Every structure is written in structure tokens, then in C-alpha cells.
Amino acid sequence: MDSLKDLLRKFIEEQRSRVLNPGAQQNNNSEAETQLNDSGFDTNTIRDFINNAPIEESTDQILENIFKLIGKEVTFIKPIRVSDEGFVSKSITTKETEQGLEREVVKPLIVAACGKVIKEEEIGVRCSVPNCGLYDCKEHSFVCHNCGCGTCMQHTLFFKDEKGENIPLCPRCFQILSWNRYTW
User: Fold this and answer.
1) To bridge 145 with a disulfide, which of 90, 102, 167, 174 should be the other Cys (CB 3.0-4.6 Å)?
2) Where are the beta strands (DSSP E) in 17-133?
């Protein structure tokens, strides 16, 4: 952090000397400016900030004001149950504090129908059973072998076919297949 402050202090002094001595011969990109650019900082924004600062401000005051602009980001993740009413996938609020801007990002973690806590990208299926409509993870999502509707882990029923394999079925198709099998 101190090396960044020293680098910014050097850049501020160079920019102030350019403003105060416009006729003096100076190279376009100084070493401090090149290092700031290589570090990912936008020197044009910093230069504009320096040029807009009052002339009577010292280098240390300008440096302190630059660091006030740099804020922190706080991320909160809260678990929610997703429903058809929808949900907010990301909420960003920014507030000004004495130390600068503070950005708060709220991201949801989704509680799937199987009980597993997942991210939004890991949603596999929305259960098509009436009065359910819950979302389940990709690992526990099934598609009915008969009708092709998606079912969550809670409403998936398995039926052994003639080969002895368990096939996933929705409750409606399971009931129909059970009745048909035992009718004869």
C-alpha cells in the first residue's frame, strides 16, 4: 500500500509541476504514469482529479482525497426458495461513507427442492407437478420417461421395467403404469 501511495505521490507532483511550468520540456509518459497504467489504474481519471483540485491543496491532501474515492465492496449471500413469482438475482447498492464509497452486493443462494443449497446457474429443472413448481439442482432433476415433463427429487417415482432398470416417472404416469401393469 505504501508503494502505491509513493507512486501516486510522484505522479501527483509530476502533474502539478506540468500545470505550474507549462513551458518546461517534459516527456509525455513518465515512469510513474507508466507504472500506474501497468497496474491497471486509469491515469487520465487521476489526472482529471488532480487538475480539478484547488491549487492551494497539498500533495498529501490530494492523495488522501484519491484514497477516499476508492471504496470497498461487501458481498452478502442469502439463501432463498425460488418460486414462480421470481427472485432478484443480484442487488447492488452504493452508499457514501467517510472512507469513500461502499458498494454492497447481495447475491442469492438457492435452496433447491432436494434441500441442497446451489447457485443460480446450477438450477436443473422446474417441477411440473401441480402445486409444486419448485426448482431442483441438475444432479437431482429428472424427466419423466413417459410424458417428458420435468420433476424434482420429491416427486420423481421410479418404476422397474421388464429389463430390471429403474426408470424415472412423474406421479401421474407412475399411477397409470401401475394400474396398467396390474390390471391383467
Assistant:
1) 167
2) 72-80, 91-97, 100-111, 117-118, 123-126
- Residue carrying C-alpha cell 441438475: 138
Secondary element (H or E) of residue 98: none
3-state DSSP call for residue 57? coil
Nearest in space to 136 (alpha carbons), one of 174, 81, 85, 88 = 81
pLDDT in tens, the chain (184 residues): 467 778 888 888 888 777 666 655 555 667 888 887 777 777 787 787 777 777 777 888 877 776 665 555 556 576 777 766 666 677 777 777 666 667 777 777 888 888 888 888 888 888 888 888 888 899 988 999 989 999 998 899 998 888 888 999 999 999 988 888 766 6
pTM of the model: 0.48
